[in-house]
Amino acid sequence: MTQPTTIRRAPGARPWLPEHLRTALALAAAGVPVLPLRQGKVPFGNCHRCAQNVCGGRPNMKSAGPCQCPGLCHAWAAATTDPHVLTSPAWMAAWRRAVTVAYHPGGAGLTVVDLDDADAIAWARKALPATRVVPTTRGEHWIYRGTMASRNAVRPGVDIKSTMSYARYLGPGTGTMTALPDAVRALAVKEPPAVRPVPQALAVSARSGGGECPHRTPAYLERGIAMAEQGITEAHSAVHAAVYRTFLAVLSTHGRCGCLTDAHIARLFTAAQSKGETARHCVDAWTNARTRLGM
Question: What pTM was computed for the model?
Answer without folding.
Answer: 0.61
